[in-house]
Design goal:
5-stranded mixed beta sheet; 2 domains; Nucleotidyltransferase, domain 5; 17 strands; Gyrase A, domain 2; 28% strand
Length: 378
């Protein structure tokens, strides 16, 4: 990931450099990779720097309260200004940058017209180094930028620097572009071919102050956040749809199971009542048949019959030939391919009832078995 620093000349020309070596100043629109960070310099003429008391602790409260805490120091209405801030070295103070919204909107529109979306918009003076007792001045043809405090700066003609002679007597470092000279004595001097080469030193750390706050938060970052929320919402919708589909599938499976069990009960009813032709409610019709033969309600035998139905339908090779219902037991006559199949059937039926294999007679179609089921499973 590279950091790219852009400076816009008064005539609109873009000059830029990248942290990707070698560092050199280039002109035009820089090529950007998806993960590159784009820093744009806001000219010193367009920004007002100041210090202000920290009027709230949370960033959100500061964003709301700070503009009204400093509006008496501004010549323009606060509603027309954008206010950005960062914590100062003194925890009771903040460093503040103020820029006209009209100017900020025009700058961003100019960048976006070139398909450039900045991540950082930094006030030019803050790209110059500063420490207590040592100010820094940058002098280029017809222009000088002086940073003489954590959030104090001046921009003007080089000869206008003389008014600050008393403010920087502790020490003044200079960055001189080309053959420029400083009207003030310098403690140390650095010469560069372009101011961008001096400003590039700030790219090694975090931005001293990013004007893209609040309503002007970086669009690319906001887009990432929005995409993350959209992804989360999409996943939630997919989860709900899967849950709904799973419920529908379970319902269909249960309905199929109920239909199959009703079919099994109907088959058992026909086996128990050979003359039956129409089956509407197998359980109730079995009760009626038992009552007609004087066997009472037959609740126990009907329960055994319901338990036996799934076990009988598991193996398609087993055929139910006949059954006899009693008040407390159920006798089944089945045809199976071999004794092993009968044993397996006995084990399945024994899950919910006591099962006895009373007979196993070999025949031409396999083995005929008789099983007696009674209450009290193992």
């Amino acid at each position: 990931m590279s950091r790219i620093l852009i400076r816009i000349a008064p005539d609109g020309e873009l000059r830029w450099l990248s942290t990707s070596a070698p560092i050199r100043v280039q002109r035009g629109v820089p090529p950007l990779a998806p993960d590159d960070r784009l820093w744009v310099i806001l000219p010193a003429e367009d920004v007002l720097l100041m210090s202000a008391p920290r009027v709230a602790r949370s960033p959100a409260q500061m964003q709301q309260a700070l503009p009204y805490a400093i509006e008496d120091q501004l010549a323009a209405a606060i509603e027309t200004q954008h206010v950005a801030w960062v914590p100062a070295a003194n925890p009771e103070q903040v460093s503040v940058a103020v820029v006209a919204r009209e100017r900020l909107d025009a700058l961003l529109a100019s960048l976006r017209a070139r398909a450039l979306e900045p991540d950082v918009l930094v006030p030019e003076p803050l790209l110059l180094p500063w420490q207590v007792g040592v100010a820094t001045v940058l002098v280029e043809p017809g222009r000088a930028v002086l940073r003489y405090g954590e959030a104090r700066a001046f921009v003007g003609q080089p000869d206008e620097l003389l008014m600050f002679a008393g403010s920087v007597d502790a020490g003044l470092d200079g960055v001189l572009v080309g053959a420029q000279q400083s009207p003030l004595p310098l403690r140390a001097t650095r010469r560069v071919d372009d101011a961008l080469l001096a400003y590039a030193d700030a790219l090694r750390g975090e931005a001293p102050l990013n004007l893209l706050q609040g309503d002007y938060a970086p669009r690319r970052r906001a887009g990432h956040t929005q995409r993350a929320w959209l992804l989360a919402a999409g996943l939630a919708v997919v989860g709900l749809l899967l849950s709904f589909a799973h419920g529908l599938l379970e319902r269909a499976q249960l309905a199929s199971l109920v239909d199959r069990q009703r079919g099994e009960m109907a088959d058992l009813y026909r086996a128990a009542v050979p003359g039956a032709t129409r089956v509407v409610d197998a359980e109730q019709q079995l009760r009626s048949a038992l009552a007609a033969t004087g066997r009472g309600r037959g609740d126990a035998s009907l329960s055994l019959l319901a338990q036996a139905a799934p076990g009988l339908s598991t193996d398609s090779r087993i055929q139910l030939d006949a059954l006899e219902l009693r008040d407390d037991s159920l006798e089944l006559v089945v045809s199976a391919p071999d004794v092993a199949a009968l044993d397996a059937l006995q084990q399945r039926l024994a899950v919910g009832a006591a099962v006895e294999l009373t007979a196993a007679t070999p025949g031409s179609k396999g083995v005929e078995g008789r099983l007696r089921l009674s209450g009290g499973g193992r």
